[in-house]
């Protein structure tokens, strides 16, 4: 019950700190290009030792550098290809000794939490069991750590699991080993994962406006649009940071109907050496099979098919004290686009 009370009272503070040729008639030779052949400024947040807590920003004491992140209205976050999700809560520095005193004493004086809980808190933070006088004698030598809930995880399963009482960590010392959610470069990398934004997966098609039944439709993604993106998360107070990077590796095409054939047959188009996916159609290639594309076997009638294009991104991180790239679960981001499929009209001679 005491912990429940502490979490309820801390709720407001947590909310603020979070934050795709016959006769007599002949078929015209329609080609994939439609002829007949004979696209945020960086945003950061900062922490400060002024005010009621160290967390004077929406991200607590964490600073996010998004200057190399994806941007634009169509950009979006990735979804893990596994059951893994970013941390729903974590612990990090939140108070100096003076700030903790200013935070707790008004609660005790209001007597709204009951004598027993107040007495336990005083005993823990004032009377030396185990801390004395809010550790004022260690001012400037460490910080009080408390729980944070990232804005994207508010209400998510596990977001209220960080229920450890506020604890002290000396400068340069590791947080207690029995608190796995305490902030580390690895957890920073996982939190940065949630901040990754990648461009829309609207793919280039040829033919562009409408394709034809049994005509291979070429599909590709421009390397200039699909390049690696990254987000760096740091805690200046602790001198630690981590950079999480997402790189496109493949494109999966789902035609939106069972009456279609994909190229390759798996529908998975791998990335090329130059960073592009697929190959733009060029005149003279009408009889070739596209390295990435789709062939519809039936007209869409008066409507269209919902082609879905999903890009898989390989995600990894580097950070303080870490040698080489460390893996994180792959992420995906997809979008649908309308494809009109028409019957090829006979040309009378």
Structural summary, described in words:
The protein has helices at residues 2-17, 97-110, 115-125, 185-195; strands spanning 25-27, 63-65, 79-80, 90-95, 142-148, 167-170, 204-206, 210-212, 217-221, 229-235, 240-254, 260-263, 268-270, 277-278, 293-296, 305-319, 326-342, 346-348. Mean pLDDT is 84; it is low at 1-49. The radius of gyration is 28 Å and the shape is elongated. Strands 2, 3, 8, 10, 11, 13, 16 and 17 form an 8-stranded mixed β-sheet that branches. Strands 7, 9, 12, 14 and 15 form a 5-stranded antiparallel β-sheet that branches. It has one domain. It has 349 residues and is α+β, with helices and mostly antiparallel strands. It is 15% helix and 30% strand. The protein has 4 helices and 18 strands.
Quick recap:
This protein is α+β, with helices and mostly antiparallel strands and 349 residues long. It has four helices and 18 strands.
């Amino acid at each position: 019950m005491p912990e429940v009370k502490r979490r309820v009272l801390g709720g407001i503070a947590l909310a603020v700190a979070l934050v795709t040729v016959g006769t007599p008639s002949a078929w015209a030779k329609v080609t994939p290009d439609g002829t007949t052949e004979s696209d945020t400024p960086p945003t950061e947040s900062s922490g400060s030792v002024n005010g009621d807590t160290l967390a004077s920003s929406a991200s607590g004491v964490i600073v996010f550098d998004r200057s190399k992140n994806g941007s634009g209205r169509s950009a979006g976050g990735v979804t893990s290809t596994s059951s893994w999700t970013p941390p729903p809560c974590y612990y990090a520095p939140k108070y100096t000794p003076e700030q903790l005193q200013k935070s707790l004493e008004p609660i005790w004086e209001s007597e709204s939490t009951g004598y027993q809980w107040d007495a336990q808190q005083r005993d823990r933070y004032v009377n030396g069991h185990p801390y004395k006088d809010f550790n004022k004698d260690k001012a400037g030598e460490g910080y009080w750590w408390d729980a944070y809930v990232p804005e994207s995880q508010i209400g998510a399963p596990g977001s209220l699991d960080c229920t450890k009482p506020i604890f002290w960590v000396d400068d340069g010392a590791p947080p207690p080993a029995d608190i796995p959610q305490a902030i580390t470069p690895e957890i920073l990398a996982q939190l940065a994962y949630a901040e990754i934004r990648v461009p829309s997966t609207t793919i280039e098609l040829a033919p562009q406006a409408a394709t034809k039944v049994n005509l291979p439709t070429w599909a590709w993604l421009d390397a200039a649009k699909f390049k690696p993106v990254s987000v760096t998360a740091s805690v200046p107070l602790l001198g630690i940071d981590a950079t999480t990077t997402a790189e496109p590796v493949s494109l999966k095409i789902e035609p939106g109907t069972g009456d279609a054939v994909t190229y390759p047959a798996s529908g998975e188009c791998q990335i090329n050496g130059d960073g592009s996916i697929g190959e733009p159609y060029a005149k003279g290639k009408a009889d070739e099979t596209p390295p990435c594309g789709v062939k519809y076997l039936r007209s869409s009638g008066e409507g269209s098919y919902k082609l879905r294009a999903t890009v898989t991104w390989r995600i990894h991180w580097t950070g303080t004290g870490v040698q080489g790239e460390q893996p994180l679960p792959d992420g995906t981001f997809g979008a649908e686009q309308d494809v009109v499929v028409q019957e090829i009209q006979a040309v009378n001679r």
